[in-house]
Amino acid sequence: MGKLQEFEIAFDKNKVVYSPGESISGSVTIKLGQPLQCKAIKVNCNGFCGITNKVNDTAWTMEEQYFNSTVSVADKGTLKQGEHTFPFKFLIPATAPTSFEGNYGRIVYRVRAFIDTPRFAKDYNTEKAFYLLSLLNLNELPDIWEACSSAVTQQFTYMLVKTGTVVLKAQTEMKGYTPGQIIQVMANIHNQSGKTTGNMAASLMQRVTYETKRPTHDVRTIAEVEGGVVKAGKMVEWKEQIIVPPLPQSSLAGCELIKIEYYVKVSLKSPDVMLMLPIHIGNVSLDKKLRPSKKAAQPSSAAAEDVPVSTSTPDSSTSTSATTPTVPPRSAPKPAPRPAPRSRMSSHNSPSAPPAEYHQGAEGGNDGFPNKRQSQLVSPNAFSYAPGLFFPQNQQPNGPGPAPNQPVFSGSTVTTAPYPPEGASSMPAPLILPPDYGSSTYPQEAPPSYDESCST
After folding, report:
1. What does the pLDDT read at residue 272?
2. What is the pTM of this model?
3. SS3 label, residue 414
């Protein structure tokens, strides 16, 4: 086996990944079968970047050195037979970039050990690589929370004949992701031509630029998802997801020779149209707690602006419920006058929402009379103050709107009107509200007693 039986480098705690500014320590182990004369034993720690114009070539055309430190752990002498251990320790600069290995260049960090022997004797050396990781915190990048969007218009030419245009719009919800996260891609394709397009696709792309005299661009597809086609004259909304695999980070801070970029490419195969959505790949994901909050509108002012009164009568506009905020009525056509008893009945406070029994009666109807419904268009924002009510924003009327002289009842868009509209020939009223004598002035005096009625 010769004199040298073992010559190895070991890092403390078998650690192989370090951070900038951290110290790296370990030991060099030498095991000899017989004594060995040496001039010195040295340990070197260095980091550098090398790039080339040929694929997987180590004859670097350009190099960049980050640090290079050497210590001597043994002086000139004779190493006895057996095992010898020499400790070492180095400090990694805080400006050193992250390790990287590509087709046209690398960022390499390593520890090497040398045994210098006398003249005409064989020299011995060994090395062990370690990796440096400088974390990229996405929260520190500017405008990282904004959606990334783009649009492009392309002429559609089929058989040398122009048939129209295709408009492609796409966006991603964020600009920064970490490996394992999902990129939400949303695209809108409007085919304004007379020919069906090819399949749509979304791809996660990586572009590495090596800054030689003539820069080399290494572009490759990391992941790709494919969708359907868009027929002539149609518009399609397409949503897809791309899972980010383990990838190097976007920024190699401290390196001037290698630049890494990522982007999402959304394209159509026919016509040849595509757009790019640049994104960042980092190590520390975005924290929702650090997301800048958008200025929200004042709820009170918004409710006041969005609460319209579509039609109102003099009876209902003069009084409101105790739990209903006062809303200034809009100008409406003056309705025809009503009889006095009906006017007194409508002067009571109306609830912001009808009771459950009222809904059941309106929906179920009465056995003796046909159930007639009156459709009303009610603004959903008009009931934003009533707790427990929900109206969809895209609510559509079921029929024609109410007449100007017809009372409006809040709480339901389809209810049975308690009074027939003015001018109607005949309409049964299954729900007639009794007059409230507590607030009405009728009767004006108490009825006569039994003795008084007998005397008269």
Report:
1. 87
2. 0.61
3. strand
Q: Which of the four CATH numbers 2.40.50.180, 2.30.140.10, 2.60.40.640, 2.60.120.620 does domain 140-287 have?
A: 2.60.40.640
Measure the CA–CA gap between 79 and 5, rounded to whole angstroms.
13
Domain limits of the chain? 4-132, 140-287
- The confidence band for 163, taking pLDDT boundaries of 50, 70 and 90, is confident
Q: For residues 404 and 329, give the distance between their C-alpha atoms in angstroms, rounded to a whole number.
A: 14
| Domains 4-132 and 140-287 are alike in CATH topology | yes
pLDDT of 369 reads 35
User: pLDDT (tens digit, 9 = 90+) per residue, 28-87?
Assistant: 999 999 999 899 999 999 999 999 988 888 889 999 999 999 999 998 889 999 999 999
Is 371's pLDDT higher than 70? no
Place of tokens 């210098």: 116
How many Cβ atoms sit within 10 Å of the Cβ of residue 358?
A: 18
Dmax over Cα atoms in the chain, in whole Å? 154
Give, as one character, the DSSP assignment of residue 389. -
- In 3D space, the residue among 223, 238, 243, 242 whose CA is nearest the CA of residue 268 turns out to be 238
State how far the Cα of 200 lies from the Cα of 225, in Å rounded to an integer. 9
For the record, the structure tokens of 200 come out as 């749509």
CA dihedral 399, 401, 403, 404 (to 10 degrees): 180
Sign of CA dihedral 303, 304, 305, 306: positive
Residues in the chain: 456
pLDDT given for residue 138 in this prediction: 93
> Omega before 337 cis (within 30°)?
no
For residue 431, give the 3-state DSSP assignment. Answer: coil
The DSSP output letter for 140 is G
Residue 80: partners with Cβ closer than 8 Å, 6 or more residues away: 32, 35
| Amino acid identity at 381 | N
CA–CA dist 8, 86 (Å, integer): 11
Under CATH, to which class is 4-132 assigned?
Answer: mainly beta
Parallel/antiparallel/unpaired status of strands 176-177 and 273-281: parallel
Q: Quick one: pLDDT band at residue 158, thresholds 50, 70, 90?
A: low
